Amino acid sequence: MIAGLLPQVSRGLHVSTAAAGWLISGYALTVAVGAIAVTAATAHLPQKPVLVGLVALFVAGNLLSALAPDYGVMLLGRVVAALCHGSFFGIGSLVARRLVPPERASRAVALMFTGLTVANVLGVPFGALVGERWGWRATFWAITAIGAVALIAIAVLVPASAGARSGSADLRTQVRAFRSTQVWLTLTATALGYGGMFGAFSYLAYTFTRVAGFSTTDVAWLLVVYGTGLVVGNIAGGRGADHDRDVTLLVSLAGLAFTLAVFGLLASSRPASVILVFLLGVFGFATVPGMITRVTDAAGGVPLAASANVSASNVGNAVGAWAGGLVISAGFGYAAPLFVGAGIVGVGMGVMGAAVWVGGVAAGGTGRGREVKVVEGQGS
């Protein structure tokens, strides 16, 4: 949401574009730290009440942002809201997996993350539209109200059995899972893939208006196009990962790097921008279900690994947004973050290739069957 409001927030709080960008980077860094810390602190608790509490934290943070009198309070509100993010998606993905057979694990995660992709189709442009018409604070009030509805829905509708205490909740057991080389390679590839996409996405509002010549009111429907791509990529990525996870991840990363590079070259073309922002969403989110199931399988299904994957993605988000702001501040223009993103994703594709090769050597093949059995043994 904040990416579509960045120009309005910057003007309203009287801060620079780079400072406003920290409302994205600061959020992402807090997610990166909070995902690990909160998951570890709540590992001994039943997971459904934890999910409810995390959404309550989200509501409180957005309420604080809506009321913020200055930039410092606004950033604090973003930090409070971000504390819930990583653990919510990490724990929520494991709850989703627990409801289906192992061979449908990636699709279950994709379905759970459909909420996130639909939010980008509806929420992000809605936020930009509301912000343009009634001011950016109105958007945060709306998000606060929606968060309250979500809190009630989770409390009422999520099965208690699916949110029971994890069978691998012992913190020492969870930490030991991070001895796996595959865990670290997958986390690194996740960070680089997300970092490349967010290095571009964080400044898309400026790319559309300053490079392609769209009006500020056009940003809302352009973000709908991007969000539609996220939904398509999420569904396709989940199905592809259940069929051949590693191939799906490599193809998705290659497509993302190519899309970003071409987008950078054709950013001044309005028709090309519409097509490429859709493809950016498709390839950018096609990696999500496979990355989560890959890292949790490699870690034996422990909750901390799922949250670590969300942390890794948000480390990438923070670095990507910072790098994008850096090249803009250096005078390279508003298309420059697209090229930076392409380079970052290219490195991520190399890391993913190394992970596949190392896994193949260690397992004498793809190792997919063995990974699924490990997760089943943990009760996920």
Structural notes for this entry:
The model is unreliable at 365-380 (pLDDT under 50). The chain is built from 15 helices and no strands. It has helices at residues 2-13, 17-41, 47-67, 71-98, 105-134, 136-157, 171-176, 181-201, 204-211, 218-266, 270-285, 288-298, 303-329, 336-363, 368-377.
**Strand-pairing-aware structural class:** mainly alpha
Largest sheet properties: none
| Count of alpha/pi helices | 15
Number of strands: 0
**Regarding quaternary structure, how should these chains be classified?**
single chain
In whole angstroms, the N-to-C terminal distance is: 32 Å
What pattern of helices and strands is seen along the backbone? HHHHHHHHHHHHHHH
> What general outline do the C-alpha atoms trace?
globular
Helix content: over 70%
- Cα Rg: 20 Å
